[in-house]
Specification:
InterPro entries: Cro/C1-type_HTH (IPR001387), Lambda_DNA-bd_dom_sf (IPR010982)
Strand content: under 5%
Largest sheet: none
Structural class: mainly alpha
Order of helices and strands: HHHHHHHHHH
Protein name: XRE family transcriptional regulator
Radius of gyration: 23 Å
Domain HTH cro/C1-type: 8-61
Number of domains: 2
Shape: elongated
Keywords: Membrane, Transmembrane, Transmembrane helix
Number of helices: 10
GO molecular function: DNA binding
């Protein structure tokens, strides 16, 4: 279940209770209260215990759709910091080395990532899983919420696809690095730097696809599932 952290904090403050007092009254640990007030995640038992001490219906503590939206967006931003660093580093290298913008739009590396992504998806989840992953892309752009088994399945699927993308990027990067190092004696220093920066494009593409599509979908569906 996903509780409204703002509601819980407000109700506790109105009673003049500290987290320690609420923990003692509800029979939960202080750490549990702190975690619930931080991310809103609570089991049915914890929700009932907290609602009981305030003489409220558990439903009154539930997060609203707007709060859910804010919560998953905040989590996406925090989890995307590393990806943003990778992207920023790649762009900086292109600028420093004077690469043209056309190199960033590398069709071959993008096509390789997509093919690797769905090949890995078929191996791990079957053809049905691949089709569901494509159909589920609509949840990134709609307020429609799904729950239960479907949300759990799709959240797991998209979380795995994030890993598949980075795995494909790593394979592509290593393959490119081997090719570059195998011919290092024929490169001048500047040419070597240009080749190395070009080799980072596949990681750049993986970060964009993973962090703008598949990780947000996974987080949104995990959050929505807490309502079911």
């Amino acid at each position: 279940m996903l509780l409204s952290t703002d509601k819980l904090k407000k109700i506790r403050s109105e009673h003049g209770w500290s987290q320690e007092v609420l923990a003692k009254a509800s029979g939960l640990s202080v750490r549990t209260i702190q975690r619930i007030e931080s991310d809103g995640k609570a089991s049915a038992e914890s929700t009932l215990a907290i609602a009981s001490v305030f003489n409220l219906s558990p439903q009154l503590l539930m997060a609203t759709s707007n709060e859910i939206e804010v919560n998953w967006v905040r989590r996406i931003i925090m989890k995307n910091l590393m990806a943003l660093l990778v992207i920023t580093g790649a762009i900086a290298m292109f600028v420093v080395l004077g690469e043209s913008a056309s190199l960033v739009i590398d069709v071959q590396s993008g096509l390789f990532l997509i093919l690797f992504l769905y090949a890995a998806t078929v191996i791990a989840f079957g053809t049905k899983g691949m089709l569901k992953s494509i159909q589920g892309l609509k949840y990134l752009f709609t307020d429609e919420l799904v729950g239960g088994v479907q949300a759990q399945y799709l959240a797991k699927l998209y979380s795995s696809q994030v890993k598949f993308l980075y795995a494909g990027a790593l394979i592509g990067f290593i393959s490119g690095a081997i090719g570059i190092l195998g011919n290092i004696d024929t490169y001048e220093n500047f040419v070597f730097q240009r080749a190395s920066s070009f080799n980072l494009i596949i990681i750049f593409h993986a970060a964009i696809i993973a962090e703008s599509i598949f990780r947000p979908l996974s987080l949104k569906l995990k959050t929505c599932d807490m309502l079911s």
